[in-house]
């Protein structure tokens, strides 16, 4: 396998930006229904980094339900989105959980790296 070049980042980045323009409105609608806000993080040169932040006080969906809703929203726009059902979530700093979704549009693919911030229970909920 050859090393990744600057040209690879330029081409993948252009594809990722165009794809993000197509799918972000649907992703944000799905996340809002699940009680989350979505923000984009990073350069987009290799992948699309999304961060989901709990946005409502009660009835926030699980990270798995959010992931499924986002996958469905992306499928509704471009036709194909997949995640590894048997792959565990990766634990990141500050309690964040991450997983990767693979998106196809035409003959091209992109990785959506989804990070989900945990919900924080109120003072009365702490043990």
List keywords for this structure.
globular, alpha+beta, 2 helices, 127 residues
Any overview of this molecule?
The model is unreliable at 123-127 (pLDDT under 50). The protein has helices at residues 6-33, 63-78, and strands at 36-41, 48-54, 80-83, 90-91, 97-105, 108-116. The chain is built from two helices and six strands. It has one domain (6-125): Beta Polymerase, domain 2 (2-Layer Sandwich), CATH 3.30.460. It is α+β, with helices and mostly antiparallel strands. A hairpin with a 2-residue loop joins strand 5 and strand 6.
Write the layout of secondary structure elements.
Layout: H1 6-33, E1 36-41, E2 48-54, H2 63-78, E3 80-83, E4 90-91, E5 97-105, E6 108-116
Parallel strand pairs: 2-6
Antiparallel strand pairs: 1-2, 3-5, 4-5, 5-6
In CATH, what is the class?
Alpha Beta
Mean pLDDT: 92
Distance between the termini: 51 Å
Rounded to an integer, what's the Rg over CA atoms?
16 Å
Order of helices and strands: HEEHEEEE
Structural class given helices, strands, pairing? alpha+beta
Q: What is the CATH topology?
A: Beta Polymerase, domain 2
CATH architecture: 2-Layer Sandwich
How many strands in all? Answer: 6
Domain count: the total is: 1
* Overall 3D shape: globular
| Low-confidence regions | 123-127
């Amino acid at each position: 396998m050859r090393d990744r070049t600057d040209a690879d980042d330029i081409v993948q980045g252009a594809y990722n930006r165009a794809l993000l323009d197509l799918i972000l409105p649907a992703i944000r609608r799905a996340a809002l229904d699940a009680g989350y806000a979505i923000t984009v993080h990073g350069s987009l040169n290799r992948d699309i980094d999304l961060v989901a932040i709990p946005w409502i006080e009660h009835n926030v969906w699980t990270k798995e339900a959010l992931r499924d809703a986002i996958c469905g929203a992306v499928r509704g726009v471009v036709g194909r989105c997949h995640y590894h059902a048997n792959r565990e979530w990766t634990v990141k700093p500050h309690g964040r959980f991450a997983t990767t979704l693979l998106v196809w549009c035409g003959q091209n693919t992109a990785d959506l790296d989804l990070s989900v911030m945990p919900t924080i229970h109120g003072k009365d909920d702490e043990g």
